[in-house]
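FAQ

Q: What does a record look like?
A: Structure on top, sequence underneath. For example:
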């Protein structure tokens, strides 16, 4: 851990004065009270007498050296000696005497047995000594037996409350502060180094956020025209696209107090704490206005309120949401406070939360495109020691569908791989291996696979490669391998075209290429295996989407049963009849079987090339796009924006993911 103190500025007096004074801990009070109770229990101010056995007592009685015997509470016998006994056993204390202090003590078992032994020991004596029954109260022990359990129960409860309050942060550890806001405050003194320069690939979203910061810095620019700053900005998008990073950049750029909190921080086991923390958060923000509140993962408290009377409408989460709605746009004024929230589940948020006046702007943070990925690579490569062969444009083209977090992970994995290989700089191959590692999993070259299984896997992957290479709208294949990676026994890497809409023909060709692996097994071996598990799952979902969602089936027509709100998942009934469900099932099966027969036809017409490619896979374990070009010829439909890789370029993105082995698109 780095220490910011400087020895050059060390001064004895200053250091002594700057040392914080130790505060008195109230736990010492517990220690003192416990010591008092224990002292009253074990120390009553009397000197302990010597404890003897019953034989010595009988001897004392027979020698007539006993003056009296006190039987205390039927448990302990206190024995007082007369003058002759003191002279005999305590000659040094003869002049002083013991007073009311017993000379000996004896622990007894049964009172009746003790009295019988005394009578037997003094049989024939004229004036026998009989024990006197004495009742004494040990007030310290009795008080402890009643008070100590109560003190321990309340002490334990109070300790738990203190620990919960301390974990609450702003509450200072006290029970009455548990309803305080847990938001972390960033101001000018905070060390927030993230700026807008660190945000790449999100130009449109960044413009919206930059405008909010600019309004806080130059309010007259907007207010002179009668404009008002948006009260709330909601960042929506897939995980890893940079929503939280945008908020961090606002904290680093804005010269106003910035409160950061997670939606789950409002949730507590005590009823009413969430609403209390919301009130306290906005109270602090208003006191420091103009200010910004950032609520990450707002869906934790912003989920749509239930309309069912069975679930109840007064639960803790809904109370917290109601208070948030009131604070953002209620009867009272809330000027000077801007709320920025982030979520990747906007479909489940309450409509009252997303309306204008609360969140005036909803910014969708999408996955970066080709240019955005290049900019993100440049940001994360600033502190990396790169070789001359690293091309950011090349890497951006090989990572379609990657989010900003994925690209950051690629850069970090590439650095780790280069360090593992004892390199002086990070090379292009290290980045490609990192992409394979992230998408496909760890390579398992030592996994034991029989020759027959290896042959089946080779023809399966060769079937994917052949059909995708010979179909116009299928994604072009760049690499196929039968080296086990992750859970897959084989993998095929594709380079999908970045498109925003997909036609019926494109989806159909992708289904044919996906079924090419099973079709190759059927064509070559005459039987099929379980290796096409994820292939079948994928084509079933694609065919169902074509029929039920996108209206691409002639029998169903231009109808869609897709529910963008997500409420259909919780409904007990389907949005179509049983007859329509049967038609959907029939059409899905028909599309999949037609695609499978088309795959069999293509592979049957090119069985020589399929066999040649499979044998090459068995021999080399990895083949690339140039190998397919030598066997089947050049693809006339290759997109010029894509890069057709050779073995020299080594690995590219894409992966098969299955329990055994099958083919799937890259991310």
């Amino acid at each position: 851990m780095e220490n910011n103190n400087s020895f050059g500025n060390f001064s004895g007096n200053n250091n002594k004065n700057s040392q914080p004074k130790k505060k008195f801990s109230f736990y010492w009070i517990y220690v003192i009270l416990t010591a008092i109770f224990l002292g009253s229990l074990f120390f009553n101010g009397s000197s302990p007498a010597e404890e003897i056995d019953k034989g010595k007592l009988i001897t004392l009685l027979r020698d007539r050296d006993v003056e009296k015997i006190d039987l205390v509470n039927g448990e302990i016998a206190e024995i007082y000696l007369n003058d002759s006994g003191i002279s005999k056993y305590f000659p040094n204390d003869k002049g002083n005497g013991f007073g009311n202090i017993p000379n000996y003590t004896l622990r007894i078992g049964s009172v009746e047995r003790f009295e019988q032994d005394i009578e037997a020991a003094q049989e024939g004596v004229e004036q026998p000594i009989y024990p006197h029954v004495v009742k004494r109260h040990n007030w310290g022990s009795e008080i402890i037996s009643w008070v100590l359990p109560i003190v321990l129960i309340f002490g334990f409860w109070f300790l738990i409350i203190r620990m919960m309050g301390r974990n609450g942060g702003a509450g200072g550890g006290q029970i009455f502060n548990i309803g305080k806001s847990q938001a972390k405050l960033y101001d000018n003194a905070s060390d927030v180094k993230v700026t807008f320069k660190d945000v790449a690939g999100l130009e449109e979203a960044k413009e919206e956020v930059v405008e909010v910061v600019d309004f806080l810095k130059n309010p007259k620019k907007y207010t002179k025209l009668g404009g008002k700053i948006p009260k709330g900005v909601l960042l929506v998008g897939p995980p890893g696209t940079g929503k939280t990073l945008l908020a961090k950049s606002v904290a680093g750029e804005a010269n106003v107090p910035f409160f950061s909190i997670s939606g789950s921080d409002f949730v507590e086991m005590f009823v009413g704490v969430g609403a209390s923390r919301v009130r306290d958060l906005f109270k602090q923000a208003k006191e420091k206005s103009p200010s910004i509140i950032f609520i990450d993962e707002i869906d934790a408290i912003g989920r749509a309120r239930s309309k069912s009377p069975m679930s109840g409408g007064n639960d803790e989460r809904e109370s917290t949401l109601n208070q948030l709605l009131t604070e953002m746009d209620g009867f009272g004024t809330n000027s000077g406070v801007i709320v920025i929230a982030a979520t990747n589940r906007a479909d489940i948020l309450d409509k009252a939360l997303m309306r204008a006046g609360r969140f005036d702007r909803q910014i969708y943070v999408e996955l970066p495109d080709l240019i955005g990925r290049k900019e993100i690579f440049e940001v994360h490569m600033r502190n990396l020691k790169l070789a001359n062969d690293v091309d950011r444009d090349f890497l951006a083209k090989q990572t379609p569908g990657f989010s900003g977090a994925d690209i950051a992970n690629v850069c970090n994995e590439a650095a780790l791989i280069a360090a593992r290989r004892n390199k002086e700089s990070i090379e292009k191959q290290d980045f490609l291996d990192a992409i394979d590692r992230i998408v496909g999993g760890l390579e398992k070259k030592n996994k034991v696979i029989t020759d027959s299984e290896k042959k089946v896997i080779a023809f399966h992957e060769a079937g994917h490669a052949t059909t995708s290479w010979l179909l116009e709208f299928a994604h072009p294949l760049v690499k196929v391998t039968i080296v086990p990676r992750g859970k897959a026994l084989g993998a095929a890497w594709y380079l999908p075209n970045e498109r925003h809409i997909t036609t019926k023909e494109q989806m159909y060709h992708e289904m044919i290429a996906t079924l090419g692996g099973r079709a190759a097994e059927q064509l070559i071996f005459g039987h099929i295996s379980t290796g096409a598990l994820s292939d079948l799952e994928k084509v079933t979902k694609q065919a169902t989407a074509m029929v039920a969602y996108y209206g691409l089936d002639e029998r169903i027509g231009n109808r869609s049963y897709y529910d963008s709100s997500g409420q259909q998942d919780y409904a007990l009934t389907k949005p179509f009849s049983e007859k329509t469900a049967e038609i959907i099932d029939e059409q899905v099966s028909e599309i999949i079987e037609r695609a499978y027969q088309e795959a069999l036809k293509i592979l049957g017409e090119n069985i020589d090339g399929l066999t040649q490619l499979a044998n090459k896979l068995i021999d080399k374990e990895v083949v690339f796009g140039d190998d397919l070009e030598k066997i089947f010829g050049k693809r006339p439909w290759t997109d010029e924006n894509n890069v057709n890789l050779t073995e020299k370029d080594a690995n590219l993105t894409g992966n098969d993911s299955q329990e055994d082995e099958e083919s799937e698109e890259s991310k």
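Q: Is there anything notable about this one?
A: Residues 139-167 form the longest helix (29 residues).
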